Description:
Elements: E1 7-12, H1 17-30, E2 35-37, E3 48-49, E4 54-56, H2 57-66, E5 74-79, E6 83-85, E7 88-91, E8 93-95, E9 101-105, H3 120-138, H4 157-162, H5 169-181
Parallel strand pairs: 1-2, 1-5, 4-6, 5-9
Antiparallel strand pairs: 3-4, 6-7, 8-9
Amino acid sequence: MARHPYLGLVALGPIDPDILRSLRSSLAKFLPLPVRVLHPEPLPLQAYHLTRHQYDAAQLLEFLVDDVETKAFRILGVTAEDLYIPIFTFVFGEAQLNGRAAIISLFRPRGDAGGPTPPRRLVFRRLLQLSLHELGHTFGLEHCREDGCLMGFSTNLEKLDRKNIKLCDYCRILLADYFRDQGMLPPLKRYAETQILDASNPTADNSRKHHPRGSRQ
């Protein structure tokens, strides 16, 4: 583990700097890690699929790990391009389970795939959900079947919007245990004190059964 671990945010291709600044501020409130915005990177041409007109999410994860110069404990890529993996038409994001890298796409959350343009506040809520969900995979969390849990699997925007910016109790315990094992959290006397990824943040909505291992949102 890095001596001073942090989460690095990196734009892959053109991204509104306000989006990165907002994500940096919000993610720092949910995770026990400082967040830094890194130097933007161009999208690797080899990850583009000429027929699908999409970028291969798995190849972008490899690019983040192998080619982006950073000592970040975790790295989150943000792109405006549509993403896919071979078994799905598209993905909102992708992550390495128990790995260093995750990526999210603005393409569908902001309505680039067609349909009405959603309000900016809703777009950012979606991006925060996706960021926390994919980063959760890098911290070892798998897909969860608990209703409303942030780690639930979302195949469309309707399902994404029904989720809370909140982990269920079981996932929250697992995440807190992970950070304690990494020395990032002090020992707690009881799990009820665990506050990681709960609804205490004003941006969160108040509106365990687990899925087989995976990394798609």
